[in-house]
Amino acid sequence: MSAVSAASAASSAPRPRSTPGSLILTFYGAYGRGFPPDGSVPVATLIRLLGAVGVDAPSVRSAVSRLKRRGLLTADRPGSRAAGYRPSPAARQLLADGDARIHARPEPDDSWLLAVFSVPESERRRRHVLRSRLARLGFGNAAPGVWIAPSHLEEETRHTLERLELAPYVDLFRGTHAGFEPTARSVARWWDLESLAARHRAFLDAHEPVLRAWSRRRNRPDPAAAYRDYLPALDAWRRLPYADPGLPAGLLPARWPGERAAEVFFALHAKLHEAGGRFVTAHAEPGEDSGGRGA
After folding, report:
1. 165 exposed, middle or buried (CB, 10 Å; 0-12, 13-18, 19+)?
2. Which residues pair with 115 in a beta bridge?
3. Which residues 6+ apart lie within 8 Å of 239 measured at CB?
4. Helices (H), 138-222
5. pLDDT digits (tens, 9 = 90+) for 106-154
6. Confidence class of residue 1 from pLDDT cuts 50, 70 and 90?
7. Sheet of strand 170-175, all strands in order from the earlier edge strand to the far edge
8. Parallel, antiparallel, or unpaired: how do β-strands 146-150 and 140-143 relate?
9. Are 249 and 256 in contact (CB under 8 A)?
10. Within its chain, how far is the Cα of 14 from the centroid?
11. Under a CB-based contact definition with an 8 Å cutoff, are residues 242 and 207 in contact?
């Protein structure tokens, strides 16, 4: 099999499903914020670019409407031919926090961030939101009302709690684990490591063959093929640094697949992101230039 056909075969291999809304947010994170003047992308452009990764026009429109209702997209120039959507201020902060989480390799310092919260029974809905948000940030549940994460998540945690108006219910502390149980055993209680390892292996099953195929190609990446392979890889990867928040390697099981998953993603990013940006620019509305300036 030639390198070109190998890349095509790898591209068509089964992958974990991505939702249209998730792919739209991933697109804005990767490329959409570079659209002038303020990251506003016409709906027609979104439909064209999401269509390249298999999302049909009705699904794009429905997903955009849901993201607007959630306060993540803001309508721009409604009613005009160039009507489009741009990230809201809250979404911009979310994407900026995501840049650091998705594209950086954390270096744990063996200190921990504790989030201790108390929510009145009359506001139980906020309690549910707080628990689910801490879990999505990568916190483990140490005890009722006590959540724990590596200390490097402090800044993003503060941004998130403030954005959701949950900060008044939470106290944050930093410190070390002083016993009595070995820390590695405690980490295995606070996080579902088997489930995390399975998610890393699923990412590798879907995207490591894609990397191998591209690694055999010596010519400059074709922009369309690069975009089709990069956006789903980024969409799949961007959840993993949240589920697995950069736990110290010495506290994880032997042969932890997270390290290899990170290597595969960063290699795909280095090979495909820029070429994918050329595809985005070529398919933008006349007069627009995304410039590939996204994360």
Report:
1. exposed
2. 147, 172
3. 199
4. 154-163, 183-190, 193-215
5. 887 889 999 999 888 888 888 899 999 999 999 999 999 999 999 999 9
6. very low
7. 140-143, 146-150, 112-117, 170-175
8. antiparallel
9. yes
10. 20
11. no
